[in-house]
What does this fold into?
Amino acid sequence: MTQVDVLLGLQWGDEGKGKIVDVLSPQYDLIARFQGGPNAGHTLEFDGKKFVLNTIPSGIFNEKTMNLIGNGVVIDPIILKRELDNLKKAGHDPVAKGKLVIARKAHLILPTHQLLDAANEQKMGKDKIGSTLKGIGPTYMDKTGRNGLRVGDTTLPDFKDRYNKLVEKHKEILSHYEFEYDLTEKEAAFFEAIEFIKTIPHVDSEHYVNGFLKEGKKVLAEGAQGTLLDIDFGSYPFVTSSNTTTAGACTGLGIAPNKIGHVYGIFKAYCTRVGGGPFPTELDDEVGENLRQVGHEFGATTGRARRCGWIDLPALKYAIMLNGVTELIMMKADVLDGFDTIYACTHYEHNGETIDYMPYDIITVKPTPVLKAIDGWKTDVTKVNKVADIPAKLADYIAFLEKELEVPVKFLSVGPDRVQTLELN
Ligand code: GDP
Ligand code: IMO
Ligand code: MG
It folds into this structure.
């Protein structure tokens, strides 16, 4: 019996999960997304081509790997159809090749869920979460409120009635907002997409994944968002609506905790956040702007400028603890190539104390980061493809992080392409 390895983000998302899942996928028989929805944007680059996946697992470009959209994911049929249509146009048709299956128990995002998301954010004004407006929060609310519609329901004879019942409820809520909308076009697209979704095999993810394990096959669970956006442990309420942590892989796929194997925690050599909420090491200056430009830090899903700052070790330690990370993966080292000095936040000054954890009142009282200066390597690392060629100062930075975080760095990424990846130890 094999175990499920997990790969997830340790910061506020966009760490580079898509790229690394694609790189690792030849080692796996199944790649399984376990939470989130099309709020995610996972970018993959190879052979001069670039793809952004929102719902589809990032193993889709590897010929022999199966891909599962797990029960913990919320699916927008319109977006999933569009993703698959675009892939088909680019010469990749995972549906025709039988390489994609969907969990029956995954919940559906309705057009009215998106409207509710937008109406709510509009009402919150300057206090808004900064949601991607994909309807994620309202869909998970209906899931936990026991009103939701699931993929498996689409084949029931009364699916349309169930849909209408839920939409009536949403319209009632929307009537309390000053919010104009027209559903006609979206609804037609929704039902067209539902017919398409029915052509993709529906499975019980719990039996499907455990079946792979019983046969000794290898499974990698792909996270979306990042640990600091977790509904329970992130900077609430500036979070997403699912458990983005390792525990989420158990409930989002139907695997027992003792079936978890390696946990790959992925982080950028610095830090970014998109949307509202606390960000202790944020650089609201030309250094932050430099990171944004060099790192192309603009959202893969919404195109929004990402907020940028230095690496935050208290936040990373917290994420490592919550996830049981066994190996680290450091991304975007090349973005720091031009810096004379880089900085790492080792502690926070908070309410007159020096602390090394994320405090509960981080939302209301901004911690001041205590920064350690680190020499930059001042070398173009984008073409480094041997461990021996890693500049000494970059190797020192990695050694410093390993010592602080007490977990080895297994992979180093030095550019967006598949081939710009080094295995360290
Ligand atoms: P994800 O949501 O975690 O999959 O990450 P995103 O795809 O949203 O954002 C990561 C961005 O960084 C994408 O544009 C990637 O192509 C890019 N990227 C990934 N790894 C590297 C790297 O090592 N260096 C550089 N410069 N870009 C990278
Ligand atoms: P990937 O998988 C970065 C952020 C939004 C917002 C908050 C809530 O590409 O790393 P939601 O749409 O869930 O209601 O938004 O979470 N957010 C992300 N930030 N990467 C993501 O996904 C994100 N998904 C959601 O910007 O602040
Ligand atoms: Mg992303």
Q: What stands out?
A: The radius of gyration is 21 Å. The mean pLDDT is 97. Residues 13-14, 40-42, 300 surround magnesium ion (ligand 3) (CB under 6 Å).
